[in-house]
Amino acid sequence: MGEKGEIVKEEKNFHGDIFDVVSRKIKTPDGLTVKRQVVLHGNAVAFIAPVQIDGQTKFALGTEYRAGLNEERTSFPAGLINDGEDPKTAALREAREELGLDYREAKEIFVITTSEGFTNEATHLMLLSDLVGKVDKDFDSSEFVKTIFVTFSELQAKIEAKSITTAPAIISYQWMKLHPEII
C-alpha cells in the first residue's frame, strides 16, 4: 500500500442506497493540495465457483442486469460485503443466495481496484472449494441472476468473443490459466 494523503476537508454531496458521494480537499503525499469528488462504496466479492458436472469441472457464471451500463452482463458471481462480514463469509453467502450452492471454503486470490481516481471500492476475488450441496437461492429484492455452468474452454471462448468483459472475470480467467490444477 502507498502513502496516504491528508483529508483536509470533506463534505457529503449525496447519500444513496449503496454509495455516497463526497467532495474532498486533500493534501497529497507529494505536497499538492487537490479537490476531488469521491464515490464511497462498500467493498465486494467476486468468486470462482467450480462444480463437477458429468465428470467435468465447470464454473458458475451469472448474467445480471447492471444499471451503470443499462444492460445485462455475464461474469463470475459477485456481491457486496455486508457490514460485519469478511470477504470469505460474504463469498460463501453470495454463493448460497445467487447460485444455490453451499461451499465450505473460500480463499482470497487477489484484491482488485478498478477506478481509484474516483471510488474507494475494492473487489476481493475468491476461489470457493469443498462443495457441500445445493440449497434454495435467495435473491435480494432488487436482483435476479441467471446462472450457467461452463468449462474453462467455454469461458475462454466467451472472453475472446467479448461477451464477458468484466474486470473480475478477466482477471480470474488469467489467474486460472496460471493455476491449471483447478481446471
Automatic annotation (TrEMBL):
Domain Nudix hydrolase: 42-178
GO biological process, one term: nucleoside phosphate metabolic process
Record key words, sorted: Hydrolase
Cofactor dependency: Mg(2+)
Lineage top rank: taxon: Bacteria
InterPro entries for this protein: NUDIX_hydrolase-like_dom_sf, NUDIX_hydrolase_CS, NUDIX_hydrolase_dom
Record carries keyword Hydrolase: yes
Coiled coil (UniProt feature): none
Gene Ontology MF term list: hydrolase activity
Pfam families on file: NUDIX (PF00293)
Record's protein name: NUDIX hydrolase
